[in-house]
Specification:
The structure is a homodimer. By secondary structure, the first copy, chain A, is an alpha+beta fold. Chain A is 64% helix and 12% strand. In chain A, strand 2 (66-71) and strand 3 (74-79) form a beta hairpin. The longest helix of chain A is centred in the C-terminal third of the chain and has 19 residues, at 83-101. Chain A binds chain B through residues 1, 5-7, 9-18, 20-23, 25-27, 64-65, 80-81, 83-84, 86-88, 90-95, 97-99, 102, 106, 109-110, 112-113, and chain B through 1, 5-7, 9-18, 20-23, 25-27, 64-65, 80-81, 83-84, 86-88, 90-95, 97-99, 102, 106, 109-110, 112-113. The structure holds a DNA duplex.
DNA sequence: CGCGTATATTCGTGGGTATGAATATAATTC
DNA sequence: GAATTATATTCATACCCACGAATATACGCG
């Protein structure tokens, strides 16, 4: 059982986390929970340029987290693994705990931001 | 409820994910599951330099994921939120699914790598 | 206080990342 | 096939990250 393979797994694991390491991409994934969504709509929701939305979606596609389906001229992106949102929720919970322990009263915000 | 606050939450969320976006740090977190561990031991386990281990631990400390406690001259690092490992496990499961769907026969590796 | 051990920090460098602007591709309609 | 719409890609730029080497700090001991 080659050491290189094990390292490769951890590399892929890290790259998966890396895909989540951007506020825009996090918002995109949560937005996709409502079902397949066109690129333009995602861009509008996030208030970013179309090209930027495409770039972020390319990252998510590359990591295998979303799939794209064409319908006419518009591209619908679909969330592939809902478990990703569970993972994000878990980390959000950690963040909430951390902020509470830090003494800030930001807990209320946590309920809303999503 | 200011928009800036909500954006700040997502920024922090992303920074949390960013902390996980490195193979060495993932290994460190899993290693810390066994209880508080000195820096040198972590460095040895991962086969990295002491300074590099300290740097990675500084990132985890900065994101609030670990705490450091001094005992004499050695520093014991402790995992602060076990839920982080749950999140990592969820993502590992996603990775496993993805590799299986991709047709590779790397599933067996997934059982071991940790 | 000087020495050794354990850890932290700084610094330089190479490589990666996010973004807007511009351009390219793809499908639909006329 | 030209015009239109929706999306993708390329490019340049500014910023961030991982690493080793060197240096600094902190503690314990004599």
């Amino acid at each position: 059982m080659k050491r290189a393979f094990v390292e490769e797994i951890h590399q892929l694991h890290a790259e998966l986390c890396q895909a989540l390491a951007d506020p825009k991409r996090i918002l995109m994934l949560y937005a996709l929970a409502d079902g397949p969504t066109p690129v333009g709509e995602l861009a509008d929701q996030l208030g970013i340029r179309q090209s930027n939305a495409s770039q972020h979606l390319a990252v998510l596609r590359d990591r295998g987290l979303v799939t794209a389906e064409r319908s006419g001229t518009t591209m619908f992106y679909r969330l592939r693994y809902p478990a990703v949102l569970q993972a994000l929720d878990l980390l959000r919970g950690v963040l909430k705990e951390r902020l509470q322990e830090a003494g800030g009263q930001a807990e209320c915000l946590m309920e809303i931001a999503r």
